[in-house]
Amino acid sequence: MAASPAPETIAGSGASQDRAYVGIDVGGTFTDLAMYDTATGLFSTVKVPSSPPTFWPSVIAALDAADIDATRSATVLHGTTVHLNAFLERRGARMALVTTEGFRDIYEMRRGNRVRPYDMHFRYPEPLVKRRDIFTVAERTSADGTVLAAPAEADIAQLVERLKDGGYEAVAICFLHSYRNPQNEVAVTQALREALPGILVGPSHEVCREWREYERTSTAVINGYASPVLKRYLTDLLTALEEKANTRLFLLQSNGGLMRAEDAGDRGILSLLSGPVGGNVAGRALSEEAGFPNLICIDMGGTSFEASLVVDGQSVVQTEREIGGFPVLSPMVDIHTIGAGGGSIAWNDAGALRVGPQSAGARPGPACYGHGGTEPTVTDANIALGRLEDGCSFGNLTLDAAKARDAIATFAAPFGMDGEAMAQGILDIINEQMANAIRTITVRRGIDPREFALVAYGGAGPMHAADIARLLGVSKVVVPRAAGAFSAWGMLQSDLVHDMAETVLIDAREVDWASFAQWFDSSAETLGARLVSEGVPRERVHFERLVDVRYVGQENTLSVVLPPELLAAPEKCLATMRTAFEAEYVKVFGHSNPDEALEVATLRLRAKGESALDARTLLAADDAVPEAMTAEREGQIIFDGIARATRFITRGGMTPGKDYAGPCVIEEATATTIVPPDFSATIDKLGNLILTFEEAAR
């Protein structure tokens, strides 16, 4: 494998000289690369087709296209969905679960509730572990952490023999109350790792040391199910990178921070949303620099559509969420994903038009790719309506409008529609689906999307952004520089981040604040030392201390920040915590209950090693390959069934500060932006393309 990173690799006091910093986002259709070269101060992007099912060859192809070879030093910051897709598509590892005797069914029983009580057709997803693969050990720890019964050596030996013959790739371990005291889990874990060296053993206390037995079990199971897939991928990629001198690989985590690739393979749960998170990190950086505190970040690629929020300049992070129908206890940027992309296939559902979630992917891809695809897709609809020009290129692809029109016309015939009407219908449906995805994380949570700007990226995002903004009543759309590689751009400025949590569950009036301070100090020492070992100078290591708080008798919690100086004055802690909690409670729920007692559920520490690169440096960098400046030309695009004369403009030829009235199409290397008749566009001082919805802006 590639050598471990030395100091000053990613979070040093300054970016290392003569080193390329490379962000790579692997999507289902395309792989995007964004690079900042410290030797020249230049910024560049690359887009190549992805290489399913292994995907890592497209990473190497992108690096080759960027001239990262054996003579150049590079730090590669990478996001991938390879293990997330394996989990969602049920292609994960064959695994076993070990739990406390008498609790064998806790994973299958879940919470016993019906999520949708009035839906008679609702079914929970099939468990990732079959009941025959769930084993128990006679052990017991009480709720206060007292070990009542330790596992017997004979029982452990018997467990080892049963697991040896099962053909398992991974074993998850989750014992009752091990979040309070993992002593029994540690004993069984050590024995299994010694006896079964080829099997990944993942105890719950190493994955999430938090309460809620079913949720903790689910998290441990998903980690065991997905990690072997990620580990194989990273092993193959690191082996391929050995041919490139002094290349170091970091993986983006679901919390928006980075971790060393060598450490990521056994902790797949930490990077489950690795791919989509880069765009939110980029949106957070752009928010500060461009003066948009509230952003709706939308990433539309070839296969999927992701929506997330930046609120008051910060990413929205959840410590518990559901993915694929299973709960996960792990800090994750709140990203909502649906199957809607340029490759989403239109299909006939008993006479009703549907679009997605099935995707044509990279191969064969949409019909216009000319790779043998015959089913109409969103990209085919765009080119059929003139939004993409016949013969235009993306990476090494040249689009064929005739093939797109033929596919749509053939599909439209059973509906009694012509091709243009069908193409418009496909776009209307996919746009409404994406707007509904945004409503899920805004309107349904009491957030008004009209108070946000929409930042659009991904290869297809800028094409649909104005239509989505119109549906939501959003007045401003931001299309950042190198929008097609914006997620990769965000990876360039991601920090190294590690999280630690421990459930305490105590009445706030009974808290020993000195013991809390001791836990935070001890955890900070552990995580700080880890960051320093990864090359972060001490002066760039920062900590955030939080507590999860709730009213007594409630189920869920809200996180409250505890400044370190507050912990030094314990007499003020309770009052200050209550004030902060109730302010957050009012913000979320619209009211508070100041007479109710509080409960502290979980302590959390986030350790951050700041990156040497920041948005300001990257925004100021010149392009290694400047946008080609071509003469403005006229074309025809169909908007709502009406063919309109439309200007085609090169983004590099636009004059900053000048207003460009729609309809027009703005072209650049990584994306195409559609400016409908009721929108206008301008370039701001940072080089962002700003679209204004004239009706909403009045």
Q: What is the structure about, briefly put?
A:
The protein is α/β, with parallel strands linked by helices. It is 31% helix and 29% strand.
Q: Report the sheet-strand fraction.
A: 25-35%
Sheet with the most strands, sense and barrel status: 9 strands, mixed
Helix content: 25-40%
Backbone structural class? alpha/beta
Individual helix count = 19
Shape: globular
CATH topology description of the largest domain? Rossmann fold
CATH architecture label of the largest domain: 3-Layer(aba) Sandwich
Write structural notes for this entry.
- The structure is a single chain.
- This protein is of the alpha/beta class.
- The chain has five domains: about 110 residues, Nucleotidyltransferase, domain 5, CATH 3.30.420.40; about 130 residues, 3-Layer(aba) Sandwich (Rossmann fold), CATH 3.40.50; about 130 residues, ATPase, nucleotide binding domain (Nucleotidyltransferase, domain 5), CATH 3.30.420; about 80 residues, no CATH class; about 120 residues, 2-Layer Sandwich (Dna Ligase, domain 1), CATH 3.30.1490.
- It has 19 helices and 36 strands.
- The strands form nine sheets. Strands 13, 14, 15, 18, 23, 24, 32, 35 and 36 form a nine-stranded mixed beta sheet that branches. The chain has a seven-stranded mixed beta sheet with strand order 12-11-4-1-2-3-29.
- A hairpin with a 2-residue loop joins strand 14 and strand 15.
- It is globular.
- The termini are far apart.
